[in-house]
Amino acid sequence: MKHLTTTVFAAAALLMGAHAHAAMVETWSVDIEGLWTAQGPAGVTRDLGDTRLRWGTSTGFGQSSLVITNPVPGLSVDTYVGAGVPPAANTVQTLTLTHANNPITGTSLQNATLTVSLALTPTVPVAPGFPLPSINYAIQFLETSNDGSCEVVGSPTPCNDIFVLTSGLLNESFNYDGFEYFVNAFPIGGTGVLQTLDAGVCAAAGAAPNCLGFTTVERLSNDLIFGLAISTEPLSVPEPAGLALVGLALAGAGVARRRQTRQD
To answer: Which of 10, 144, 174, 233 could lock onto 159 through a cystine, CB 3.0 to 4.6 A?
Structure first.
Protein backbone atom coordinates (compact mmCIF):
# COMPACT_ATOMS: atom_id res chain seq x y z
CA MET A 1 0.00 0.00 0.00
CA LYS A 2 1.36 3.40 -0.92
CA HIS A 3 0.78 6.52 1.14
CA LEU A 4 0.18 9.66 -0.87
CA THR A 5 1.13 13.15 0.13
CA THR A 6 -0.37 16.27 -1.37
CA THR A 7 0.41 19.81 -2.42
CA VAL A 8 -0.38 23.08 -0.65
CA PHE A 9 -2.67 25.50 -2.53
CA ALA A 10 -2.91 29.11 -1.35
CA ALA A 11 -6.19 29.48 -3.26
CA ALA A 12 -7.77 26.76 -1.16
CA ALA A 13 -6.78 28.60 2.00
CA LEU A 14 -8.42 31.79 0.76
CA LEU A 15 -11.62 29.95 -0.14
CA MET A 16 -11.85 28.18 3.19
CA GLY A 17 -11.07 31.12 5.39
CA ALA A 18 -9.60 30.77 8.87
CA HIS A 19 -10.36 27.68 10.94
CA ALA A 20 -8.87 26.75 14.30
CA HIS A 21 -9.29 23.01 13.87
CA ALA A 22 -9.67 20.68 10.91
CA ALA A 23 -12.68 18.37 10.79
CA MET A 24 -12.98 14.95 9.19
CA VAL A 25 -14.83 15.03 5.86
CA GLU A 26 -18.17 13.25 6.38
CA THR A 27 -19.48 13.46 2.78
CA TRP A 28 -17.76 13.74 -0.60
CA SER A 29 -18.91 14.65 -4.09
CA VAL A 30 -17.24 12.29 -6.57
CA ASP A 31 -16.56 12.94 -10.25
CA ILE A 32 -15.21 9.88 -12.05
CA GLU A 33 -14.60 9.15 -15.73
CA GLY A 34 -13.09 6.17 -17.47
CA LEU A 35 -11.74 6.25 -21.03
CA TRP A 36 -9.86 3.82 -23.23
CA THR A 37 -6.46 5.36 -23.92
CA ALA A 38 -4.68 2.48 -25.69
CA GLN A 39 -5.53 -0.79 -27.41
CA GLY A 40 -3.94 -3.44 -29.56
CA PRO A 41 -3.35 -4.85 -32.03
CA ALA A 42 -3.87 -2.55 -34.99
CA GLY A 43 -7.35 -3.00 -36.37
CA VAL A 44 -9.12 -2.59 -33.01
CA THR A 45 -11.22 0.59 -33.21
CA ARG A 46 -11.69 3.14 -30.40
CA ASP A 47 -14.75 5.37 -30.73
CA LEU A 48 -17.79 6.88 -28.95
CA GLY A 49 -15.59 9.48 -27.29
CA ASP A 50 -13.02 6.83 -26.33
CA THR A 51 -15.59 4.85 -24.32
CA ARG A 52 -15.85 1.91 -26.76
CA LEU A 53 -13.45 -0.59 -28.25
CA ARG A 54 -14.74 -2.78 -31.09
CA TRP A 55 -13.08 -5.43 -33.19
CA GLY A 56 -13.48 -8.35 -35.59
CA THR A 57 -15.60 -9.11 -38.61
CA SER A 58 -19.20 -9.94 -37.77
CA THR A 59 -20.51 -13.43 -38.49
CA GLY A 60 -24.10 -12.21 -38.24
CA PHE A 61 -24.26 -10.96 -34.65
CA GLY A 62 -22.16 -7.78 -34.94
CA GLN A 63 -18.63 -6.96 -33.85
CA SER A 64 -17.38 -7.68 -30.35
CA SER A 65 -16.89 -4.64 -28.12
CA LEU A 66 -15.93 -3.35 -24.68
CA VAL A 67 -17.93 -0.32 -23.57
CA ILE A 68 -17.43 1.96 -20.56
CA THR A 69 -20.56 3.51 -19.08
CA ASN A 70 -19.59 6.45 -16.88
CA PRO A 71 -21.75 7.73 -14.01
CA VAL A 72 -23.25 11.20 -13.87
CA PRO A 73 -20.99 13.81 -12.22
CA GLY A 74 -21.41 14.75 -8.60
CA LEU A 75 -22.02 11.36 -6.99
CA SER A 76 -22.38 11.65 -3.23
CA VAL A 77 -20.76 9.20 -0.82
CA ASP A 78 -20.40 9.31 2.97
CA THR A 79 -17.10 8.45 4.60
CA TYR A 80 -17.20 5.00 6.14
CA VAL A 81 -15.65 5.18 9.60
CA GLY A 82 -14.18 1.75 10.15
CA ALA A 83 -12.71 -1.28 8.41
CA GLY A 84 -13.99 -4.58 7.09
CA VAL A 85 -16.65 -4.81 4.38
CA PRO A 86 -18.13 -1.41 3.43
CA PRO A 87 -21.91 -1.21 3.92
CA ALA A 88 -24.13 -0.43 0.95
CA ALA A 89 -25.03 2.93 2.50
CA ASN A 90 -21.37 4.00 2.14
CA THR A 91 -20.88 2.68 -1.40
CA VAL A 92 -21.70 4.52 -4.62
CA GLN A 93 -22.02 2.91 -8.06
CA THR A 94 -19.45 4.18 -10.56
CA LEU A 95 -18.23 2.61 -13.82
CA THR A 96 -19.76 -0.28 -15.73
CA LEU A 97 -17.75 -2.35 -18.21
CA THR A 98 -19.83 -4.19 -20.81
CA HIS A 99 -18.44 -6.82 -23.15
CA ALA A 100 -20.62 -7.65 -26.14
CA ASN A 101 -19.26 -11.14 -26.78
CA ASN A 102 -20.13 -11.91 -30.38
CA PRO A 103 -18.69 -14.64 -32.61
CA ILE A 104 -16.30 -12.96 -35.03
CA THR A 105 -13.51 -13.62 -37.49
CA GLY A 106 -10.39 -11.57 -38.17
CA THR A 107 -8.62 -9.22 -35.78
CA SER A 108 -9.33 -9.62 -32.06
CA LEU A 109 -8.55 -7.42 -29.07
CA GLN A 110 -5.44 -8.53 -27.15
CA ASN A 111 -4.69 -5.67 -24.76
CA ALA A 112 -6.04 -2.30 -23.70
CA THR A 113 -5.56 0.46 -21.14
CA LEU A 114 -8.48 1.88 -19.17
CA THR A 115 -7.59 5.29 -17.72
CA VAL A 116 -9.76 6.50 -14.85
CA SER A 117 -9.79 10.09 -13.56
CA LEU A 118 -11.23 10.89 -10.16
CA ALA A 119 -11.91 14.21 -8.42
CA LEU A 120 -13.21 14.62 -4.88
CA THR A 121 -14.99 17.60 -3.36
CA PRO A 122 -15.79 17.69 0.38
CA THR A 123 -19.43 18.70 0.89
CA VAL A 124 -19.78 18.08 4.64
CA PRO A 125 -18.03 20.25 5.68
CA VAL A 126 -17.82 22.28 2.47
CA ALA A 127 -14.26 22.62 1.17
CA PRO A 128 -12.43 23.02 -2.15
CA GLY A 129 -12.29 19.99 -4.43
CA PHE A 130 -9.14 18.37 -5.76
CA PRO A 131 -8.17 15.81 -8.44
CA LEU A 132 -6.38 12.57 -7.73
CA PRO A 133 -3.79 11.18 -10.16
CA SER A 134 -5.23 9.27 -13.09
CA ILE A 135 -5.28 5.48 -12.78
CA ASN A 136 -4.18 3.25 -15.64
CA TYR A 137 -5.68 -0.23 -15.61
CA ALA A 138 -3.89 -2.63 -17.95
CA ILE A 139 -6.11 -5.29 -19.49
CA GLN A 140 -5.25 -8.49 -21.33
CA PHE A 141 -7.98 -10.13 -23.37
CA LEU A 142 -8.34 -13.46 -25.14
CA GLU A 143 -10.95 -14.05 -27.83
CA THR A 144 -11.21 -17.84 -27.59
CA SER A 145 -11.21 -20.05 -30.66
CA ASN A 146 -14.67 -21.61 -30.14
CA ASP A 147 -13.39 -24.92 -31.49
CA GLY A 148 -14.55 -26.93 -28.48
CA SER A 149 -11.16 -26.99 -26.72
CA CYS A 150 -12.14 -24.31 -24.22
CA GLU A 151 -9.46 -22.72 -22.05
CA VAL A 152 -12.10 -22.01 -19.37
CA VAL A 153 -12.94 -25.21 -17.49
CA GLY A 154 -16.68 -25.83 -17.53
CA SER A 155 -17.30 -23.30 -20.28
CA PRO A 156 -20.10 -24.01 -22.71
CA THR A 157 -19.40 -24.11 -26.44
CA PRO A 158 -18.89 -21.57 -27.98
CA CYS A 159 -16.19 -20.92 -25.38
CA ASN A 160 -16.12 -18.08 -22.86
CA ASP A 161 -13.71 -15.24 -23.61
CA ILE A 162 -11.16 -14.18 -20.97
CA PHE A 163 -10.73 -10.69 -19.50
CA VAL A 164 -7.78 -10.08 -17.13
CA LEU A 165 -6.78 -6.99 -15.15
CA THR A 166 -2.97 -6.98 -14.89
CA SER A 167 -2.20 -3.67 -13.16
CA GLY A 168 -3.82 -0.89 -11.20
CA LEU A 169 -4.94 -3.25 -8.45
CA LEU A 170 -3.74 -1.35 -5.38
CA ASN A 171 -5.56 -0.12 -2.29
CA GLU A 172 -4.31 3.42 -1.70
CA SER A 173 -4.60 6.17 0.89
CA PHE A 174 -4.30 9.94 0.90
CA ASN A 175 -4.13 12.67 3.56
CA TYR A 176 -6.50 15.62 3.66
CA ASP A 177 -6.45 18.25 6.43
CA GLY A 178 -4.59 15.93 8.76
CA PHE A 179 -6.89 12.93 8.26
CA GLU A 180 -6.04 9.75 6.37
CA TYR A 181 -8.62 8.32 3.96
CA PHE A 182 -8.70 5.20 1.82
CA VAL A 183 -10.23 5.12 -1.65
CA ASN A 184 -11.46 1.71 -2.77
CA ALA A 185 -13.23 0.42 -5.88
CA PHE A 186 -14.73 -3.06 -6.13
CA PRO A 187 -17.35 -4.98 -8.11
CA ILE A 188 -20.87 -4.64 -6.76
CA GLY A 189 -22.86 -6.44 -9.45
CA GLY A 190 -23.27 -7.47 -13.05
CA THR A 191 -23.12 -10.75 -14.92
CA GLY A 192 -19.35 -10.96 -14.63
CA VAL A 193 -17.60 -12.30 -11.51
CA LEU A 194 -14.21 -10.68 -10.85
CA GLN A 195 -12.06 -13.26 -9.10
CA THR A 196 -8.75 -15.10 -9.09
CA LEU A 197 -8.77 -17.21 -12.24
CA ASP A 198 -7.53 -20.75 -12.79
CA ALA A 199 -3.83 -20.96 -13.68
CA GLY A 200 -4.63 -22.39 -17.13
CA VAL A 201 -7.02 -19.54 -17.88
CA CYS A 202 -4.40 -16.97 -16.83
CA ALA A 203 -1.77 -18.64 -19.00
CA ALA A 204 -4.11 -18.74 -22.01
CA ALA A 205 -4.56 -14.97 -21.70
CA GLY A 206 -0.81 -14.42 -21.35
CA ALA A 207 -1.09 -13.47 -17.68
CA ALA A 208 0.78 -14.67 -14.59
CA PRO A 209 -0.71 -17.29 -12.24
CA ASN A 210 -3.36 -16.08 -9.79
CA CYS A 211 -4.41 -13.36 -12.20
CA LEU A 212 -7.56 -11.35 -11.45
CA GLY A 213 -10.29 -11.27 -14.06
CA PHE A 214 -13.52 -12.76 -15.32
CA THR A 215 -14.80 -14.78 -18.28
CA THR A 216 -17.64 -13.77 -20.56
CA VAL A 217 -20.29 -15.92 -22.24
CA GLU A 218 -20.50 -16.00 -26.05
CA ARG A 219 -23.43 -14.24 -27.74
CA LEU A 220 -24.33 -12.36 -24.55
CA SER A 221 -23.78 -8.87 -23.19
CA ASN A 222 -21.63 -9.35 -20.09
CA ASP A 223 -21.21 -6.47 -17.65
CA LEU A 224 -19.22 -5.73 -14.50
CA ILE A 225 -20.43 -2.90 -12.24
CA PHE A 226 -18.01 -1.14 -9.90
CA GLY A 227 -18.69 0.68 -6.66
CA LEU A 228 -16.54 3.13 -4.72
CA ALA A 229 -16.12 3.68 -0.99
CA ILE A 230 -14.03 6.18 0.98
CA SER A 231 -13.07 4.93 4.43
CA THR A 232 -10.97 5.89 7.44
CA GLU A 233 -9.29 2.44 7.55
CA PRO A 234 -8.26 -0.13 4.94
CA LEU A 235 -11.23 -2.16 3.74
CA SER A 236 -11.48 -5.89 3.11
CA VAL A 237 -13.95 -7.53 0.77
CA PRO A 238 -14.56 -11.30 0.66
CA GLU A 239 -13.11 -13.27 -2.25
CA PRO A 240 -13.72 -14.87 -4.66
CA ALA A 241 -17.45 -14.21 -4.85
CA GLY A 242 -17.18 -11.26 -7.23
CA LEU A 243 -15.98 -8.85 -4.56
CA ALA A 244 -12.20 -9.02 -4.86
CA LEU A 245 -10.93 -5.68 -3.60
CA VAL A 246 -9.62 -3.48 -6.38
CA GLY A 247 -8.43 -0.28 -4.71
CA LEU A 248 -7.97 2.71 -6.98
CA ALA A 249 -4.28 2.86 -7.85
CA LEU A 250 -3.36 6.41 -6.92
CA ALA A 251 0.31 5.89 -7.67
CA GLY A 252 2.53 8.95 -7.95
CA ALA A 253 2.16 12.41 -6.51
CA GLY A 254 0.23 15.57 -7.26
CA VAL A 255 -2.92 15.05 -5.21
CA ALA A 256 -4.21 18.46 -4.15
CA ARG A 257 -4.24 18.86 -0.39
CA ARG A 258 -5.13 21.88 1.70
CA ARG A 259 -2.59 23.39 4.06
CA GLN A 260 -0.82 21.09 6.51
CA THR A 261 -0.84 23.92 9.00
CA ARG A 262 -3.98 25.99 9.44
CA GLN A 263 -4.22 29.61 10.40
CA ASP A 264 -6.27 30.71 13.40
So the answer is: 144
